[in-house]
Amino acid sequence: MIGLGLIGGSLLRAARESGRQVWGFTTSSVDAEAATVDGFTVESGVDGALRLARERDAIVVIAVPLPAVDKTLAAVAAHAPECVLTDVVSVKAPVEMAVRQTASRARYVGGHPMAGTTSSGWAAGSADLFRDASWVLTVEDETDVAAWRDVAQLVLDCGARIVPASAAGHDDAVARISHLPHLLAAVLAAVGADGGDLALALAAGSYSDGTRVAGTRPELVRAMCEGNRGPLLDAVDDALGRLGAARGALASTGSLGATVEAGHRGWQTLQDHRGAPREPGRIDLTAPDVREALLGLGAGGGRIVGLDGDFALTV
Amino acid sequence: MIGLGLIGGSLLRAARESGRQVWGFTTSSVDAEAATVDGFTVESGVDGALRLARERDAIVVIAVPLPAVDKTLAAVAAHAPECVLTDVVSVKAPVEMAVRQTASRARYVGGHPMAGTTSSGWAAGSADLFRDASWVLTVEDETDVAAWRDVAQLVLDCGARIVPASAAGHDDAVARISHLPHLLAAVLAAVGADGGDLALALAAGSYSDGTRVAGTRPELVRAMCEGNRGPLLDAVDDALGRLGAARGALASTGSLGATVEAGHRGWQTLQDHRGAPREPGRIDLTAPDVREALLGLGAGGGRIVGLDGDFALTV
Questions:
Q1: B52: closest CA of chain A, how far (Å)
Q2: Does the record bear Oxidoreductase in its keywords (chains A, B) (predicted)?
C-alpha cells in the first residue's frame, strides 16, 4: 500500500482483516507512526516496500493523490515492474495514461472506491469504510483478466461491490454525479451568502441540502474536479445549457415547465434505478468476450458481488 | 381562513388551539368535508365567510395559490373591505401590488411561513407545522402598525418566529435560498440521468443531496418559481455568471480555486449565521421609526419571538 491516508489506510486494515499479509509506505510521518502504533508494518522507503512486493508477487495499491501518482509509478517501474497494480484515485483516464507511459509492464487495473472523504489521514480510516460501497474497476482492451480477477477479489474481501467501467466511462459518470454537484453547491453557497443575513435566516432544507458538500475541504474538491477537467467541462456545459434555457424560458414566456419536468423525471429515474429488482447472474471470466460482458454489466447499472471459480457473480 | 390546504388548514388548527374563534372557506369539497369532520366551521361560500369576518372584525387570511389571489381579493374588497388582512403565499411583491390595486382599504400585512410543502391538502396539515419555523411578515411604508401587531400575535400564537422584511427583500431572498436551489436541483437531476445507469449506480451523497428537492411535485415548484420571476431571473443570472466563470477558468487555467473557495466561504457564512449567539432585544412598536427598526432586525438575521405590551421581543 503506497499511501496510508483515509482510503489507503482503510484498505490496509480491511485487507489484513481478510487474512492477507499487508505492509505499506507513506511520506507522512504522522500516518506512518499512527499505522505502526496500530500494529501495521510500515516500510521506511517506497523502494523497499515495492521490492518486497516484487519478492512476494503482491498486489501494489497506489493510494496517493493524483499529483503524486507519476513519481510513484516511476518507483513501481523501477522496483516492482510486473506486479499486479491498482490505484484508488478518483479519476481514471489520467492514471491509466500515466501507467501506460511509465509502468507499462505492470498488470494494471484502475480502481475507485465510492466511499466517503470528508475526513482524511490514517486516523480517520476504518476497515469497514468500503462495506457495501460501489468500487469501480476499469476494463480496457489492454486489461489483463487474471490481474483484474486478483484485484476484484481484494475489493470483494473489503466488503465492496464492483462496478466495471472503462476509464473514460467512469470519468464521465463521476463528472455528472460527483464533480458537477460539488461545483453547483459552491455556486449556490456563494449566491445565497450574497443575499446577506436575511436570506440566510430564511434558508431551509432546499438550501442546506443544495450547499452541504460546499463544506468539503476546498483542496479535496479542487483535486477531484480539476483532475477530471475534460469530462467535467462537458458536464458543466450541459448544466450551463440547461440553466440558460431555463433562464430564457422564464424571461420570455414565464414558464419553467420544461426545466422542472425534466428535473423531476431525472429524479424519478434515480429512484427507479435504486428501487429496481435486479436479477442475479454470472459472467464467465474465461470467455473471449469477457471485457464486453463486464462493461455491459456496468453500463446497465449492475455490480459484481462475488467470485465463484471462473465466474463473477452479478446483480 | 380562505383556503384550507396544507398551510391554511394547519393555520386554522393552530389558531384554534391558541384559543381563537376560527372558520374557513375552501373551493375544495374534499378539504371542506375533511375540515368539517374534524370539527371546524366551513362556510359554504367565500362571501359568507368574509361577511362574518367583517361582523366580528376578524383577521382575514388568504391561503390560496397565487393564481387565485386576485379573485379572493375582489371578494375581500366587496365583503370585508377594512379587515386586517394577511396571506401565506410564497411570493410577496405581486400579492402586495394586487392588494393595493384591488383591496386597498384592507389593513394588509403580507406573510410567508417558511414551512414544509412536500404534501398538500387539509389532511396533510397539523397545528404543529409552524413550530419554531421562520415566518416573514412584510413591512412597507403603507403598513398599518396596529394591523402588523395583530398578525404578529397570530403568528407567535402558532409557535413561529417572525422575520420582518420588505416584500422585495423577501422575494430576493427566497429566490436565492429556495427557488434557485429548486432550479439547480432540476438541472443536476437531468444532467445526472443523462449519464445513464452507470452514472446513477455511482451516485452517492453529493448527488442525492443536490437533487433531493427535484422530487417535489412539479406544479408546486413551477407555481413558486414562476411567481417570483424578476428576483429569480437575477438569482439565475448570478448563478450563470459564476458557473460560466468556473467553466472559463477550468478550460483556460485548469483551476477551480476561485469558485471552490467562494463556495466554501458561503457555506461557512451559513454555519456562522446559524451558530452565532444572538442578543435578546426589544423594538418599541409605538416609535416613529418602528418600520426601520423592524426592517433592520430582519436584514441582520434577527427574529421576533414574543410581544410584551408595546414591545416586540427580539433575538
A1: 34
A2: yes
